[in-house]
Write a structure and sequence with these properties.
Shape of chain A: globular
Number of strands of chain B: 2
Oligomer: heterodimer
Order of helices and strands of chain B: HHHHEEHHHHHHH
Number of helices of chain A: 15
CATH architecture of chain B: Orthogonal Bundle
Strand content of chain A: under 5%
Largest sheet of chain B: 2 strands, antiparallel
Number of domains of chain B: 1
Structural class of chain B: mainly alpha
Largest interface: A-B, 52 and 50 residues
Strand content of chain B: under 5%
Largest sheet of chain A: 2 strands, antiparallel
Helix content of chain A: over 70%
Helix content of chain B: over 70%
Number of helices of chain B: 11
Distance between the termini of chain A: 39 Å
Chain lengths: 345, 291
């Protein structure tokens, strides 16, 4: 199981797009920009038309999307597997909850703190992960996902984590007397952070660093011989990816208003990977669709059949993989390529 | 000293479970080069089939071959129906399909047989050996695991079809050129992995009791054992499985802070440590890549 095989599809697709010339390129860019505006407008308008539970669900969807965005930087851009991102999500969530409830610090301060702590954790975990590839890395990260909830249950940490009991977090209201409910305010906060995160991720991918990360993904040996510090960049990718997931976790703790170790079992990590693949590995906007998938599809499956909800969910997953083996991102790229080709003829 | 001996034996006994699972994992990894996350659920389903047959009053000596045969066919069917249409989709898409399979099998088993815990009789009967140090069932389990390993070794080493399977896994293109039906070899690999899983499930069920989620942590230990021993080596996987069992037991006994809750994390931590120093496992082949 090599990393190359995972991403080879994508490199093949991107070549004709690059050659398509500026006329077709701007056409596609216009459509993409228009689509982005529509999504944004819908995103801003949504909480005023939706009930409070739906607003909560949409917020969670955005939070998952931020976490998946982080995973996408690691897996999609840098080509390292992780089945353990739930661990970073948990670290972020616990950072926020402990700071807010044990030390009485304002919730906005917990987000950068969660980011910093997760960056350090991710970077440090990235160091041993340097030695591992493919399935072995998948298993090591999976181990991380399994171990993390157990660590938060440990008795020495109980004064801070409250062990199995978990921590109840009080929901902050809207600041400056804004006429918004708590749920709506958190929705907008999450939307804002998600947008900032997305723009940063996009700029990162387009920068020199981003090209180095992708070079390592496509051919680590060639990348190293071109003078890229592979070890540093791979660990950095882990760190940056953990920042996104950790901030998402912190937001998650504030929005859900309760955390305990079992909220972060390895099923969370698995769900994040599912969201990543459904959205499209290496396609950043896919994170939003991935977040929507893992938030809403299990509910839909339950609606279709109560007893067999798991089976329905599985069938949906497998059918999706048949229809678009490279996720929505692959589908979008194929569509874009077909479109630009027709324009050229 | 007596405590150590007893813990070692218990470790070997639980290790036998993991070794069974690790063996099935490695089998399928050799055939398809993917870690199958639905492996444990497949074994669980096979065990439920065996339980159902026992409940219908079929004698035990008939149930085992029947369950193994059904699982073999079922494994091949899954490959033909679910996996084959995927073709050479990216690795992560395969992983997601495995997760889908996991959900389907787990949920259907719960739907058909319910989530209540069911006792499962041991094929080796009750009783124990060496003054109660180790039960008949544990001895039988270790013996069966080793026997399966020897059979597999002989199959891959001395039979034509075993050679064909190895060739298909090693170099599919060349294998096809010499007339091996590579697609069917992969299906055969799935069938065999499912059959080994069925044996493993029937051996494990008397210890952990039968229920749809019984394989969850066992699969994890199985993965850990397989990776520890090296995914390219069936004997290494069995060794790795036993090692995980022993490490887990000793750590739980001698480091009081660990207790039951932290046994799994400790085992996994040790394995990751081993991986950091030997990235392809203890007995794994190092693959040299050409640029």
């Amino acid at each position: 199981m090599s990393v190359d095989s995972m991403t080879s599809n994508e490199t093949k697709i991107s070549v004709p797009g690059a050659r398509a010339g500026s006329a077709a390129g701007t056409g596609y860019a216009t459509i993409a920009r228009f689509g982005l505006l529509v999504v944004l407008a819908a995103g801003v308008a949504a909480p005023f038309f939706a009930g409070s539970f739906l607003v909560f669900q949409l917020t969670m969807m955005l939070i998952y999307a931020i976490a998946i965005l982080g995973l996408n930087i690691l897996t999609g851009i840098n080509g390292q597997f992780s089945l353990g991102h739930g661990a970073f999500y948990a670290v972020g969530a616990y950072t926020a909850a402990i700071m807010m409830e044990q030390f009485g610090i304002g919730y906005l301060w917990t987000l950068p703190a969660a980011g910093v702590i997760c960056f350090v954790t991710g970077f440090l975990f990235g160091l041993p992960a340097l030695r591992l590839e493919g399935v072995y890395l998948a298993l090591a990260t999976f181990a991380l996902a399994v171990v993390t909830p157990q660590l938060f249950k440990l008795s020495p940490f109980e004064p801070w984590t409250s062990g199995v009991m978990g921590i109840v977090v009080i929901q902050p209201g809207a600041p400056f007397g804004l006429p918004l409910s708590g749920d709506q305010w958190l929705y907008f906060l999450t939307l804002f952070i998600g947008l900032v995160g997305y723009v940063c991720a996009r700029n990162l991918v387009r920068s020199r660093t981003g090209r180095a990360l992708m070079a390592i993904r496509d051919n680590p040996i060639a990348a190293r011989s071109m003078g890229i510090n592979t070890a540093l960049y791979k660990s950095l990718a882990f760190g940056v990816s953990a920042v996104y997931t950790g901030v998402a976790g912190a937001l998650g703790a504030i929005v859900v208003q309760f955390i305990n170790p079992d909220s972060f079992s390895f099923t969370l990590s698995v769900a994040l990977v599912v969201g990543l693949v459904v959205g499209g590995v290496g396609w950043l906007p896919g994170a939003l669709f991935g977040g929507a998938f893992i938030m809403f599809v299990p509910n839909i499956a339950e609606g279709l059949s109560k007893g067999l909800s798991g089976a329905v969910y599985g069938v949906i997953l497998i059918l999706l993989m048949y229809l678009m083996p490279t996720g929505l991102g692959g589908l979008a790229k194929t569509a874009a390529r077909a479109f630009t080709r027709r324009r050229q003829e | 000293m007596e405590l150590l001996a007893q813990q070692l034996i218990t470790g070997v006994a639980t290790g036998g479970i993991y070794a069974c699972m690790a063996l099935a994992v490695v089998m399928i990894y050799q055939a398809i080069h993917h870690l199958n996350f639905a492996q444990g659920e497949m074994a669980m389903f096979s065990t439920f089939i065996a339980w159902q047959m026992l409940a219908w009053g079929i004698p035990y000596w008939l149930v085992i071959p029947l369950a193994v045969a059904v699982s073999f066919v079922g494994g091949m069917a899954i490959e033909r129906i679910v996996i084959r249409p995927l073709g050479d989709a990216p690795v992560l898409s395969h992983i997601v399909v495995f997760i889908g399979l996991f959900a389907i099998i787990n949920s259907s088993a719960g739907f058909i047989w319910e989530f209540t815990i069911k006792p499962f009789p041991s094929p080796f009967g009750e009783g124990s050996l060496f003054n109660g140090l180790i039960s008949n069932h544990q001895v039988g389990m270790i013996a069966v695991t080793l026997a399966v390993l020897v059979l597999l070794f002989a199959f891959f080493r001395y039979t034509r079809i075993g050679l064909a399977m190895r060739a298909a896994a090693e170099n599919p293109v060349s294998a096809r050129l010499v007339g091996i039906r590579v697609g069917w070899m992969v299906a055969l690999g799935w069938g065999m992995a499912a059959a080994i899983g069925a044996v493993g499930g029937i051996l494990i069920a008397p210890i952990v009791f039968l229920e749809p989620n019984m394989m969850l942590s066992i699969l994890l230990y199985g993965f850990a054992g397989a990776v520890l021993g090296g995914l390219t080596s069936p004997a290494g996987a069995v060794f790795g499985g036993f090692m995980v069992g022993i490490i887990e037991n000793l750590a739980g006994t001698y480091i009081p802070e660990i207790g039951d809750e932290l046994k799994l994390p400790i085992a996994l931590f040790l394995i990751v440590t081993v991986l950091v120093f030997k990235p392809t496992g203890l007995f794994g082949r190092v693959v040299v890549q050409r640029v």
